[in-house]
Amino acid sequence: MPTHVLDRSAPGKLAAAALAACLMLPLAARAETSPARCDAPLDLLRLAHPLPRLATKLLTKEPITIVAIGSSSTAGAGASSPAANYPSRLAVELKRHFPDHRFKVINRGVNGEEIADMLKRFDEAIVAVRPDLVLWQLGTNSVIRDHALGDHGAMIRAGLKKIRAIGADTVLIDPQFAPKVIVKPEAERMVELISATAKQEDVDLFRRYAVMKRWHQVDRLGFDKIVAPDGLHLNDWSYACMAKGLGLAIAEAARRPVMSATAAQYIVP
């Protein structure tokens, strides 16, 4: 995608139009795996912060490496094949948004893990790879096992510190809205804890719980349409729809106008 340098003295409508073009990318497109609608309002999908590392790589045309770390819903439990899990589908979505760029999405999901387990793997799974973006899905297994929230916030901050040390962008992904999760008394509190920690640490959060809740309560999609038969994991349709929304959120944040530190310009990849 070409690089446009916009003079700040030009009418503000030009920069606004560039951002609006990103935000107006189609959300109502139907996933290939189901006739059900796949959409969500922009206020649910939009990331709070830009992704400066990705923006730089897009400008320099360098390959982009993404690591998706998490538990079974990152590994792909509930999907019909590895190609149907969310990291695999995300690679396809990002290529649609940025056809001239090379993306490598590495799946570091391990079934059954909690935050403490993931932290033990950070050096090998993340630091050694030196990714540009880390997608960290977390919180579900502690909820379904009825574990007290305890020091989860401190553990998330410890993981974020390691990611920052390698200069990667970060997007946290909260639990899924599924029968075996929402029945647990700590489900909402875990979602709130992750959200509060993201705000405190100034990192992005993809609100999977809220997006899936909207599919069920607003779009009136039954759990049989959006959750695997085990009542916990996503299925091919919901992995694809999640990847579509996450891909859009990442693309918009990476394209977001960024003020240059050396000139009064807006630089939009």
Protein traits:
single chain, 269 residues, alpha/beta, Rossmann fold, 5-stranded parallel sheet, 3-stranded antiparallel sheet, 14% strand, globular
The CATH class, by name, is Alpha Beta
Q: Name the CATH superfamily assignment.
A: SGNH hydrolase
Segments where pLDDT lies below 50 for 5+ residues?
1-35, 259-269
The overall number of domains is 1
The biggest beta sheet is recorded as:
5 strands, parallel
Strand content: 5-15%
Q: Give, in order, the helices and strands.
A: EHHHEHHEHEHHEHHEHHHEE
Number of distinct helices = 13
Radius of gyration: 18 Å
- The strand order across the widest sheet is 3-2-4-5-6
Explain the overall architecture.
It is a single chain. The chain starts with a strand and ends with a strand. Mean pLDDT is 86; it is low at 1-35 and 259-269. The chain has a single domain (42-255), classed as SGNH hydrolase (Rossmann fold). The protein has helices at residues 12-23, 42-45, 52-60, 72-75, 86-97, 115-127, 140-144, 152-165, 179-182, 187-201, 208-217, 223-226, 236-255, and strands at 4-7, 64-70, 103-109, 133-137, 169-173, 204-206, 258-259, 265-268. It has 13 helices and eight strands. The protein has 269 residues and is α/β, with parallel strands linked by helices. The relative contact order is 0.21. The strands form two sheets. The protein has a five-stranded parallel β-sheet, with helices on both faces.
